[in-house]
Amino acid sequence: MIRKRVLVSGRVQGVFFRETCRQVAQRRGVAGWVRNLPDGRVEAVFEGGEEPVAALLAWAGEGPPDAHVSGVEAHDEPAEGLSGFNVVR
């Protein structure tokens, strides 16, 4: 199991990024959370198998149809054994 903390920049708020991320994560069996940051970026934690997390990272680089992603930073962290995927408000 791996864990990535992800920061996504660009036009990523107000475009259903968080909800779509939650749906994609659930389909892929990835645990974690996603939230908007005050600076306009989206922060997320993806935890699961290497391939599903890599697929979710690739999705984050594109985002939902109305998003315009200009950058994705991903940092390794120790896995915590999370379950489920939540939108944090």
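(the above was protein one; protein two follows)
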Amino acid sequence: MLSKEDQRRFEQITRQLRESDPQFFARLDRRARARRGRLLILLTIVLWAALPATTVLAGRVAGVGCGLLLLVNAGLMWRFRRRWC
């Protein structure tokens, strides 16, 4: 964790870099969005793979919980689809 002074300096440096080289920050932003998208897709694959095993091994309640997680995941992917595509 940075001290308040260090945080202020960091924000000042970041602001100067953003103003001096906006293309650099645009590339960083695209990379972060792509990484987020890959993580959501990976989470979806893992949840779909775990759903049948969870239902068989832990029961219907756990299967319903896993299904609800899949619905939340689908909602997140739908909500942020334009940000990470």
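Reviewer note on protein two: The chain has a mean pLDDT of 82.
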